[in-house]
Records
---
Amino acid sequence: MTVIDPARLVEMANQIGDFFAPYPEQRRIEGVRNHLRNYWDPRMRSDLLAYVANGNEGELASHVLAATRLLQTEADERSAYAGPPRVEH
Amino acid sequence: MPIPVKPDQSTITTCAYCGVGCGFKAETSGGQIVRMTPWKEGKANHGHSCVKGRFAFDYYRHPDRVRSPMIRVSIEDPWREVSWDEAFAHAAGELKRIQETYGSGSVGAVSSSRCTNEEIYLMQKFARVGLRNNNIDNCSRICHSPTQFGLSATLGAGAASQHFDSILRSDVILVVGANPTEGHPVFGSMMKRSVRRGANLLVIDPRRTETVDSPHCRASVHLALRPGTNVLVLDSIAHVVVTERLYDEAFVRARCDWDDFELWMSQVGDVRYSPDVVGPEAGLEPDAIRELARRYAAGPNSTIYYGLGVTEHSQGSTGVMCLGNLAMACGMIGREGVGVNPLRGQGNVQGGSCLGSWPHMFTGYRFVTDAATRAVFENEWKIDLDGEPGLRLPNMFDAAVAGSFKGLYIQGEDPVQSDPNRHHVEAALRNMECVIVQDLYETETTKFAHVLLPGSSSLEKNGTFTNAERRVSMVRKIVEPVAGLEDWEITVGMINAMGYELKYDHPSEVLDEIARTSPAYSGMSFELIERVGSVQWPCNTAAPEGTEVLHTVTFPRGKGSFMLTEYVPTKERVDDRFPLLLTTGRILSQYNAGTQTRRTANNAWYDDDVLDISADDAAQRGLRNGDRVRVASRYGETELSITVSGRVHPGVVYTTFHFAHTMVNAVTSDLNDWATNCPEYKVTAVEVTKVTKVTKVTKVTEVTS
């Protein structure tokens, strides 16, 4: 059983993606990744990943899909901040 | 009792209606409150008051008060009165049973902005040490959560930058999606005073509100935009600032991230945000957008005040960021007379935001994923804490409908009446095995409860409130709580029943704990507040008696951050079937869901929700003033009486949500803010049709589109 309806998770993730869409590519992807990491219950994240892995990749915007992959490869704790992409100087 | 009644005692306290937080002298005779007199020394209100704080206090002794803890096995059963100890043991036993059956994350809690800072802090402590998870949320989820997100992202602090008196030094006042003359009347009076002294008033609001045009209050520019186009219009204002080079380059170079500023300029400077393109889509004259932008940028001291008309949208957080960007671009931040200021709805919404009642944050807006912050609380509470975010309240309801969330402890909230998509909330609560409600009265939500804990009103307890200008003021017990316990004592009882031993003798000890763990409150104590009257955070060694104006030298993160704010139209659209846009708000004499004010003589001013409709739209539908209408959306329908009003444009209708029987949240959409899940209460496509046979009790039925 999923924690909430996967269709709702996809809708929420794409809505987050809409906000970050105008950013340059790396920040666009990291913005979505950080938002999901810092604001979503881990069960929501894992349910979304499982749903996507089950042949539903096409339901996510491409940069949101890339962000979910980043979640898997960079699952370690990161210094959290308010969600927006950050410029690394 | 002789008339006029001569009080025998007077106690200074803080009003719980709205985020202004007026100081009052509560005067009693024979242990009963006989008069609320505005306190002249109150730093938020300077001796002024409104009709809610002044007169609407009798609710505390209304016969409807819940006077004993009650439990029942099924929501179909009658209530059974029990002792406090039995209620705590039963509630905690149920929550533990559910966790053993469905997992640790299957239960949660929600705190109330009608409660004190200390009580809100204890609710998040209940979740973290009692439930051992981060499933804790607060009611600002459905009002100002985008403020916390949007202002944190841009300015670095999710709170008003100014103190209220700052408006008296403003040359230009921009009000966006707020109607302070009705919603925050004492601050509204101060705004009018500033306007009388010559300040230029600019308003962005779909309605021609009292703030736009009433005695002592006339906007020089009013952008009556189409509901749902806030971000589009604010980006267009930014477009004018950028393309006409009205920005303060020296300020931006010194105080903000210049690379992000250039990125932002390239976005809002694009022709798609020019007033000539935006005007027709938003229903505005392009020159009016230009005029507003020029006046705001010209200052010399321009300030922004905004309300739920900005936050309660699917782009609520983006709208707040637009305001932060605009203030930084024009150098209107960091001194008296300028700034960006949310007007908070309930008395302690700012406290609700500050005190860690979030599934992703501890006090002071610090993330649960941050190990250093977690260590502060693990050290204070001597317990290991969950380092993953919990569920937000709307997601708790989603999870309950899906079957994975089974128990909820609700402090002083009525989500069935006030949260979006009533049918969804009811279905969620029905799916739970233990709903615990702590409230003054039986409500729409207690119909789904298994445990009812009699709450205490703000007149019956000690603690503090934090108002919309970050001012922490004393709440003092005027009369005894009807069921014997203050709200903080109830939550302490629940924490102990969950197996975590805890003891406080007085709420001042809770504030001391907040000060030990929260940098912005580190200098705060009951002793200090008693001594100086009230204190604005940050209060610390650098500012031992608090801080009036934020961001004077640097932003909390150093540089201010310009955020990209692309306009994404709401999915809620008008069509032939639902051709009107419904927007919602409130009026002067009633308070939010009306739980308290409906039980006072304030009903004489306003005894039912009504629907404002333009003369054109009324005529097209054969409607006359006072007619009863059916208001239907894709989500549900209800019945209301209409007022044919010049305050709304054709195509827009408006109502309040103060009365339970009108069930306006059965009609409003279930779309919500991308960042925070704050509901889009301000934009719902509806149709209005005349009801020929008036039903005595409003019947709400679900409509499937």
---
Amino acid sequence: MLNKKILISGNEAIAQGAIQAGCSFYAGYPITPQNELIAYMAKQMPKQGVFIQAESELAAINMVYGASAAGVRAMTSSSSPGISLKQEGISYIAGARLPAVIVNIMRGGPGLGNIAPAQSDYFQATRGGGHGDYHLIVLAPASVQEAYDLAQVSFDLADKYRIPVMILGDGILGQMMEPVQLSMRKIKASALKNWALTGCKGRKPNIVKSFFLREGALEEANLKLQKNYEIIRKKEERFESLFLSDAKVILVAYGTMARIAKSALSQLRCVRKKVGLIRPISLWPFPQKPFSLKNKKIKYLVLEMSYGQMLEDVRLAVGGRQPVEFLGRSGGGVPNEEQIMNKVNKILQ
Amino acid sequence: MKKIFKRCQSLYAVPTHYCPGCGHGIAHRLVAEVVDELKIREKTIGIAPVGCAVVAYDYWNFDCSEAAHGRALAVATAIKRVHPQNIVFTYQGDGDLAAIGTNETIHAANRGENLSVVFINNAVYGMTGGQLAPTTLLGQKTSTSIEGRERKAHGYPLKISEMLALLPGVCYIERVSLESPGEVLRAKRAIKQAFQNQINNLGFSLVEVLSACPTYWGLSPKESLEWVRDVMRKEFPVGRIK
């Protein structure tokens, strides 16, 4: 199966990427639009590890906590309402310094919302989501190939920094099929997890915990987390940029929205409109570098399948040097090429 | 001279934070004695609850994990599935196991996970200051049932052990208490059975331990033991349930 091209959905690509990254524990609970992922795992995971259909999202994320505490690469997946339920567990995973991979194939909200694709969980994903001062690394693929690739990267980052990593996609990315070039990637031997629970033979007992009652102990633990986040901010920014050198309007979009932005961009370039694109791939840490352009005449146009969430990070990165405009739809609506082109033309007038 | 009583290797020689008359200290010791006697300390992994016993790992000398309130059996399920050769147990109170974690409890039992559970029933929430628990007796006064538990407002004391006994995945359930030396010895035998069942790959075993909470019962340690014997055991009869 390796080293060949296969036609596969985004959901399945994430699962296949995880399997090749040596994930050996998956627990999940059905929810649309990520059901292909759990079905793929049910079929493939027993060949190399443990698959559990949990009784709830709460149980699933806490099983991932347990498997990770036991020292193996572990993953769960869900969609927006289910991810809300998982927030308790994600906070505990972050607090206990456990690696884990969590997939959110976003749908419309708030509440039960609908099953249409959306990007309205950006705040939840990038601001922690649960209680406490913590972050996840958040990666946003824009193609099925990238979903496959980033699934593998996620496990390495999770282990390297002992941090939960979220793959943030939407219903379109999860459901659509594209060809994927499978890699011959060999699973990196995981760093020695000398903190894992394996039984205390030949060593002192290991304790996995996020409870620090002694005066000053929690502040100390939080400062360690912050130090880790500082390193991640410096080293793990990921983005793609196009035509920034002469652009007067720079589109900013991630995931599925970035694909639509790219089509609009190529049509605008055909009629010599100077438009560029920044596509953040890591949403946390949010890429700062591409927004450091000095030219005061540039205008940014943020495009989202939400009513303006990443917009806040773009404004922070731009720091008031240039104007930041916004176009977004949510609840099933997706900004289309025509709407983007109209907005760009208006900005260029 | 023959030594007939000594410290357990599985229990650190430190004082506990528990109130006078609390059952947790005895229950911790029983778990430690069982782990020592079965010679499984080096492969045991304990899951501490959220509640008064959250820092049980400060007392037990083997690998441990915390779990979020109610989620201990989800965490334990994963650890045991990943390391089937290890001995994995949860130690949970009544709020943890029978209120917020009822779902995780029922489904881990129903899957027949090869785990051992020590379930401490003291009919009250201890760590948060004595609120109504799912196992609070009818008429029992707590800070959230000021006039006493009343069936129309609060429902009945939940007999989770009897409920779990209905599930085919469950191999062994026994209710024990700690109000006298004889009962403590019976409790130890039951806990040992629950661990032995796991060693023998028999599935889900649970021991419900009726345990005193003098502080939030508003009784002296001695009166608390009498209350377990004379009142609590009427609602929660001790003995083998499955």
---
Amino acid sequence: MNTQPWHLDESLAERYATGQTGQTLAASVEQHLIGCRACQGLLGRYVDARRHDQVFTGVIERIQAPRRGPVERLLRSMGVADSTARLVAVTPSLRSSWIGGVLLVLVLAQIVAHSEPVGVALYLALAPVLPAISVAAAFGGRADPTREMASASPYPMLQLLILRTVAVVGATVLPAMALALLLPGSTWLSLGWLLPSLALAAFIITLPDQLAVPAAGTLSAAWMGMVSTGWLRHSDPYAAVTPAIQFVSLVALTFALVVLLVRTTHPQRRIV
Amino acid sequence: MADRSVMDESSDADLLALVADSSTTALETLYHRHAPWLTIRLSRRCADPQIVDEVLQDTFMAIWRNAKGFTGKGEPAAWMWGIAVRRLVDAFRRRPPSSVLVQESDLSVVESAEERVLLGIEHGALGGALETLSPDLRAVVQATILDGLTTREAGRLLGLRQGTVKTRMMRARQALREELT
Amino acid sequence: MTTIDARDVVHTYGRVRALDGLNLVTDVGVTGLLGPNGAGKTTLLRALATVSSPNSGHVRILGHDPADIDGRLAIRRTLGYLPQDAGFPRGFSAFEAIDYLAILKEHIRASARHDEVRRVLALVGLQDVSTKKVRTLSGGMRRRLALAQTLLGHPDLLVLDEPTVGLDPEQRIRFREIISEAGVGRTVVLSTHQTEDVAALCSHVVVMDHGRSVFAGTVPELVAQARDRVWVDDQRDDRANAVYRLGDGSYHHIGDPPAGVQLVKPTIEDAYLLLAGPGSDASAVV
């Protein structure tokens, strides 16, 4: 390949590498270097070995770095720790089966709902807490091929489950809303679970890790309790959907969003 | 496949084919082979080592992503330089350099008779003619003819408006024509 | 130093007693579990990996009690576990797969974690395919990937369930080498069907059958179990525990030899068949 009539010698290589050749000679050297591996090799000693290695380490890091999708970037910008954001964001790749599961349950509830008021109560009780159940289903089945390895890791799996629940709220709330519009009764009443559900999710994401699990459990139970008491006492499945509860939810949601906003602007104060 | 000592014997084109098949070891071999001269050549066009390192990193990222795009025709090293110099232009667009380009010291170096001979062989009469150009015009010729940039890219590299590059190119052509005839 | 001490461990699945009063004591080094399917090897390894809890018995792993929450966490922090059906989401790259497990193993800081991921990928020889998707990797490579995650964070205990299953001979040898290197200075417990794995890898061997340990000792001690109990004869003698026909037409017998037969030097396989073979049910062998 190399048919060049001349080559760099040590001194020319040094002068070129240290910028002591004139522009025309440099241009000449550069044209030559394109085709001559031996002369390319001569220049190795004139670059700082550490700097040289560092640049390549940077290349490798960028090549291997897990691709960050929109969900992960969003979580990070909200102040979620990057490792946590990663765990939550990869949920979609583990969840091929359960989105279908969620829809199935909601559709079933929808069918039952037409035999009101039992069905409406059931729907109202389930819709806000379904994401948690569906993620649990994803963990329980074969859907996650890493499950056995993950179980032997120190990471608290219940916490991961809750975190992912929060992440999938967005994905489950929309179909649930669409189905809610088909419920008997006023549209606003049948959407009454939406605000509490969003408030619940947003509130949990603001909590420190160790509080997320107990809080989510307690609040889900409380919601289901309210729906069933309302139905049992007043035979009205919508009894839980009071202006008071909507107001409380709205306040909680606003509060949570403010906290998240503050955390976004002060990213050094990460809690989750 | 993963053995670097085997790859050290491979041609650039073969290594690029392996890189296209996601071999990081092949990329590493290419890097150790080409990063030094690329670094030095970039350094002659940009005095800020930090920018040079960034450009080098971007260049190898681009090589990684676009290795499939190397057709096997032409010199792989020329293809890589083409990527590198365009990344440098991009870097200048993002962050106009404070002190860039051909160091003045370069221009004041007087070339020996021997070097003139080397040049003559390398570039024929053009080499000699280049020398008669003023540093301004020479920089433009280097960016466009030797580095293969468009006038717009050359303008970014040299911190000139595109119109100025065009004017200087015209003047340079005229001067070269006179010199070569 | 005793690293695992398990006594009278019982684990039942409904009416099946997968572990039936099992005893296991290990030291630093590689301990191999040999036994037929259903002997309880996987159940034992899952208990050692803290993913299942036995119904009864005393278990201490690296001085910790896996039944206790803090003890379990302490064990998990220094444990590498390769389950039998270890897999990764197929859309992950090899790097992403290990990175994901590394997060679960509390490697929080991204740059240090990525260095660690690179280190273990290099240990199993997968550094060159780190960016390839799991679905494009061969079966042997996926198995190596699963092994790589066990090495994250320099664990003191490796629990490997049939690490060499499904590998071709070349990969098997490579795998043994990795495990053997990983076994220096730490406790490795692995299960296998392959007596050659045990001979090549293990300082200690435990033969399991029906949820119990029927032998525990060194490899030479295991082989010694079959001393003077292996013979070759032109005639098939069904009184032996196990008989199989050799390539030259003679029969290889394991059991109590009748007088005057030609005894041969036993192998690990002979000893294993003697201890955990079907015994009364010789027809099932081979």
---
Amino acid sequence: MDATFHPRRRQAQRLFSPASSILRFMRRTLVLALFATVASVHAHPEIDEALARLNPLIAAEPANAALYLERGELYARHEDGVGAEANYLRAAELNPDFPGLARARGALALASGHAADALPHLDRAIAANAADAEALLLRGRARGALRQNAAALADFNAALHHLASPTPEFFLARAAVCANAADAVASLDEGIARLGSVVTLELRALALEEQLGRVDAAVARLDRLAAQSERRETWLKRRGDVLARAGRAGAARAAYTAAVAAIAELPRWLQQSPDTTRLLAELRRLTASNS
Amino acid sequence: MKLRSLLLGLALGALPMLHAATTIVRGPYLQSATPNSMVIRWRTDATEGSVVTYGLARNELTSSEKAQGVTTEHIVQLSNLKPATKYFYAVSGAPLAAPDGKKAVAEDAPGRAPINSFTTPPAVGPAKPTRVWVLGDPGTKNDIQRAVRDQYLKFTGSRATDLAILLGDNAYPDGTDADYQKAIFEMYPETLRSVPFWSCLGNHDGKSANSITQSGVYYDIFTFPTRGQAGGVASGTEAYFSFDYANIHFISLDSHDSDRTLEGPMAQWLKADLAATRRDWIVAFFHHPTYTHGTHNSDREKQLIEMRQVFLPILEAGGVDVVATGHSHVYERSFFVDGHYGSSETFDAARFVKQKGNGRTDGDGAYRKPRTRAPHAGEVSVVTGSAGHASAKPVTLDHPVFVAAFNEPGSSVLDIDGLKLEFTFINDKGEKRDWFSIVKVEGSAASASSP
């Protein structure tokens, strides 16, 4: 709801993979790189359009760090790590404390697979603004990539305090750095409590519950997913699979039978779909094998 | 007690003055429409309360709903509405009903807010003739965008638009609040008051928004269902979601800023969502096209390649009928295809075209598809990214997957009536430049070629 939201907050987070040696080379050859990024030809038309707007501004104000940051973000958005880094370095040379710059550099390093290189930039961004949720998220990811799980978890927890709308992706990333499966389930359940019974969170938690031998809890998750779905048959089939794996043949058979009944309730045209007829055949086989 | 009454009286007495002093600077506009609910949003130039007064007749706005607190960004959800029903409404900072609560609010009552109307979506499931306005990359704020708008309005005439879909890059250049004000709110004000708009995130919107933190202008402006409130499976995020309208299932994906890997949450959610729907039609939309040789090239650009290689197979396996995208500022429309996930050089019509012809009932005949949700039964991919402008430079438009392609400004119209779908591209001169139909056929009557 913040009408003054600044466009430069948007970070480069897409994956691309320029070799680290190229990035190091770029640091040593800043001037050449800057020239190259200005002159290069790109597959993305909007880069050309944006450059046509930005380049004259930079020519007019060559000491304006904001413009280099903007141009760096432009390249980062289009996965040109070399161009992005060159512009960020120039911005840093002009004003190392320019707002958003450290975070952008950290995001770029992380996106290029250099988590360790990302950390000092993200430390700097968080030192400048401890409530920078995006920087905290990025540092959590960087630390997670470096297997510094406890520190990553602390970052994710700190970020959560400042995120108005955390995403499923956030809770999945946090669960991945939890100390053990039980903590990860608890972390995912916090996400489910905030976001609702989101399928991606439930399925990750379901796998962990099974790993922990919590069959009833796993089944309860499937029941929640089935309850919110117009087509229950696949969830009921999974329910049967979980129960069968746990050695509860009778309960598994009941779940498979319920799945068959759910298919029977579908409109005829959906019952006739190849996926459904295939599932039905499999359910009949599973029902028989669990007798 | 007397003091409290006095203060209360003063406060109530001040409300009309506050109301009179406040101007609506954005909207009202409709979001997250369901058969039983509607989100109404608007912005005022000063903080005040958020009240929607509504009813079944223009001169009988007998119900009201309000949000807590005072704000300039007003979001009120109306609930317990009747499906497929026309409602009249007015927004204000304080209740509009007369003090005795008995009199209806008359349209011409002095000092009253303007009265608008909307029609709730029909009950989910049964077919209902549905018109969808599809706008790709509209946000140029210029005369071309205006002409495209006007030609659509002329085309649709008295036929109501049931919903509108924005394919991203809704507001150039940076998707800022000011960009949105000019490109969307001042461009389509009347439509926004009566037609729910849905959207997906474009790269220019992404300059001022962040899907990872669900923050920024795009996420501030739109209200989309995250818990499956409008149909479909809960995604937990406004970056990608689905909703139902009558017998149609719509899917909005984030091709710009969310994880596009097969193992990522968006792909996982999409599979579950497709498996759960019982609607006759599945229409998916996102910004970056799976195929294009327009102002972008789907052979070379990462987002486009990933949407084609990761998401198109999921969609086609799930029975998608139409994939609508933008980004490339042209119009390109495919044959009835399936299974082509490589670059344009690898396109083999004999292998990937499920039905030959242009899909026109007045041409080679409509595409026919079994009603049973058969995986990989064929879909039509449409790039319609010229609602704001076409390419100023020559473009090749030579991707072999396409049967029709134009470098012209325009917008598209999706009409679905029962088991028949019609898609039309209207340019900025009002010319019907392309059209095709898909017919769902009961049983196994769909043929492998056009009739």
